[in-house]
């Protein structure tokens, strides 16, 4: 039976029902260029209502780097209690692997490696690949990486993907993420390790930060295969933000909760609540 989503006007309608909120960042709190003020206020109100708000992001950077980005966008620190990133969860995977690393991504993401004592090497000399993104995500697409991935696959190098997202919006532009490169590498029959949403490690870190271990959790996000799937795997309720990364894909639903519920069900997913954007 298809689950009909419950449309809510404000997050505040759920006040007191959840002791914790795990909220996505990119696509919900901001779009990479500007913050979403109604989302900021909704999270501040949730905290005032007693919820512990953890921002849960597939950013490949450590939490402090994301905090600095939020500060630069003017997002109040009153909107959250903690930040957990895919980068935080990924560092544990990197620490358990080879120190001889080839990095796919921009230099700005190299703060992920701080304190891990790695050797960043050319692909021919490395024993491990870490993908944090594309070298130039404003210009490149995953297809540009076919020759490089073929070379890496020929050596059977394992890959750690620090951001499982395939794409995100940067303003109105779609930008490819590390997940797109990792997907292409996995299609070549290679081993890819993932720690971000929807995979358990990032949720384990987030849950460890909650004051109450048994707190009821509400997951908020716009990614069907990261935020919604992650909530389903966690066994938590989900507030799906329908006018986010999938807005064009779900345009035919016209924002109707029943049709959106059917769209999620067709993908083996479910959510309890829906809003076009967080407020």
Descriptive labels:
279 residues, Rossmann fold, globular, 7-stranded parallel β-sheet, 29% helix, 8 helices, 14 strands
Structure explained in plain terms:
With 279 residues, this protein is α/β, with parallel strands linked by helices. It has a domain at 97-194: HAD superfamily/HAD-like (Rossmann fold, 3-Layer(aba) Sandwich). It is 29% helix and 19% strand. It is built from 8 helices and 14 strands. The chain has helices at 37-48, 63-72, 86-95, 146-154, 178-186, 200-208, 224-234, 257-266, and strands at residues 6-7, 20-23, 52-57, 82-85, 100-104, 119-120, 128-131, 159-161, 167-170, 173-176, 192-194, 217-221, 237-241, 273-275. The strands form 3 sheets. A 7-stranded parallel β-sheet has the order 1-14-13-12-2-3-4. Strands 6-5-7-8-11 form a 5-stranded parallel β-sheet, sandwiched between helices. Strands 9-10 form a two-stranded antiparallel sheet. The chain is globular.
Q: What is the strand and helix layout of this fold?
A:
Elements lengths: L5 E2 L12 E4 L13 H12 L3 E6 L5 H10 L9 E4 H10 L4 E5 L14 E2 L7 E4 L14 H9 L4 E3 L5 E4 L2 E4 L1 H9 L5 E3 L5 H9 L8 E5 L2 H11 L2 E5 L15 H10 L6 E3 L4
Parallel strand pairs: 1-14, 2-3, 2-12, 3-4, 5-6, 5-7, 7-8, 8-11, 12-13, 13-14
Antiparallel strand pairs: 9-10
In short:
The chain is built from eight helices and 14 strands. By secondary structure, it is α/β, with parallel strands linked by helices.
């Amino acid at each position: 039976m298809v689950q009909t989503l419950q449309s809510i006007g404000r997050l505040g309608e759920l006040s007191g029902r959840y002791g914790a909120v795990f909220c996505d960042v990119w696509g919900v709190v901001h779009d990479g260029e500007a913050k979403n003020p109604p989302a900021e206020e909704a999270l501040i109100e949730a905290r005032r209502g007693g919820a512990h708000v953890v921002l849960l992001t597939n950013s490949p950077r450590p939490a402090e780097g994301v905090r600095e980005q939020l500060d630069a966008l003017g997002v109040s620190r009153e909107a959250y209690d903690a930040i957990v990133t895919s980068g935080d969860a990924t560092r544990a995977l990197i620490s358990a692997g080879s120190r001889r690393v080839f990095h796919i991504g921009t230099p700005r993401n190299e703060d992920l490696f701080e304190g891990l004592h790695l050797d960043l090497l050319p692909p021919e000399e490395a024993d491990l690949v870490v993908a944090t993104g594309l070298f130039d995500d404003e210009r490149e697409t995953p297809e540009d990486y076919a020759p490089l991935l073929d070379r890496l696959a020929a050596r059977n190098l394992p890959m750690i993907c620090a951001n499982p997202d395939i794409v995100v919006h940067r303003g109105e532009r779609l930008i490819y993420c590390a997940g797109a490169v990792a997907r292409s590498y996995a299609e070549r029959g290679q081993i890819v390790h993932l720690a971000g949403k929807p995979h358990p490690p990032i949720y384990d870190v987030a849950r460890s930060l909650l004051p109450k271990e048994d707190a009821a959790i509400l997951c908020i996000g716009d990614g069907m295969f990261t935020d919604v799937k992650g909530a389903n795997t966690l066994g938590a309720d989900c507030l799906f933000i329908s006018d986010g990364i999938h807005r064009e894909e779900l345009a035919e639903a016209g924002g109707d909760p029943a049709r959106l519920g059917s769209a999620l069900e067709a993908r083996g997913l479910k959510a309890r609540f829906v809003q076009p954007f967080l407020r």
